[in-house]
């Protein structure tokens, strides 16, 4: 069977990663979560004190971050976790899968992802990962900038309220203590979702936008099982058409 590149782009918290991971597992492809790579760089910048805030606005020490990138001080990799059946993200050899999903990283990742030198570095790494094809990659610019010639491009969206509710439910499910649960606030999550949409769609370098040849999926009213079936059929049809 011919191996292809499947690019899944779309808004944050619309279930792209779940769809992409499930599809990769089903068809035996490699799955790459590019959002995790931007999150790992953000975690690195936070830990090193390169992000400060002034009146709620993130100020980034770009030259310090760029110097570290140039000195190859940031290495991001994925390792398949047989327990979860999914890849975990590593930053300089340390597993950071939990840390990169926390609110502090979510609130700071969009300005980091807007930096052209960060995008150049991660885009090159992503292109390298897809060299052999047989890959499902999810992100914001996969079908437009990373793999403009991908054989299958999907653009996923859902209303911001639906996405915020899903994110809230996911974080609530992961919260271990009552304190962690009490700290979750739907309105704050909705604000974060809408702010990220705005920054991701308006940045100068590789903004989030639908590729002309992408198939659009609005999953506001779909279950995970329905999406899974829809995506598998679309993939099988595309692969057969190319064979
Ligand atoms: O998919 P996610 O929410 O984990 O992505 C985190 C952030 O990274 C999101 O705000 C946009 C950015 N991102 C990007 O700019 N380009 C990508 N290919 C993937 C993610």
Structure notes:
By secondary structure, the chain is α/β, with parallel strands linked by helices. The protein has a single domain (5-236), classed as P-loop containing nucleotide triphosphate hydrolases (Rossmann fold, 3-Layer(aba) Sandwich), CATH 3.40.50. Helices cover 50% and strands 19% of the residues. It is built from ten helices and ten strands. The protein has helices at residues 16-27, 34-47, 62-70, 103-113, 116-129, 142-146, 160-174, 178-182, 186-202, 224-242; strands at 5-10, 30-33, 51-54, 57-60, 76-81, 86-91, 94-95, 135-139, 152-157, 215-218. It has a five-stranded parallel beta sheet. A three-stranded antiparallel beta sheet has the order 5-6-7, with helices on one face. A hairpin with a 2-residue loop joins strand 3 (51-54) and strand 4. The protein is globular, with a radius of gyration of 18 Å. The model has no long low-confidence stretch (mean pLDDT 94). Bound molecules: 2'-deoxycytidine-5'-monophosphate (DC). The site of 2'-deoxycytidine-5'-monophosphate has 14 residues, from helix 2, helix 4 and helix 9.
What's the topology here?
Blueprint: E1 5-10, H1 16-27, E2 30-33, H2 34-47, E3 51-54, E4 57-60, H3 62-70, E5 76-81, E6 86-91, E7 94-95, H4 103-113, H5 116-129, E8 135-139, H6 142-146, E9 152-157, H7 160-174, H8 178-182, H9 186-202, E10 215-218, H10 224-242
Parallel strand pairs: 1-8, 1-9, 2-8, 9-10
Antiparallel strand pairs: 3-4, 5-6, 6-7
This protein binds 2'-deoxycytidine-5'-monophosphate (DC).
2'-deoxycytidine-5'-monophosphate is lined by residues 12, 34-35, 38-39, 109-110, 113, 139-142, 196, 200.
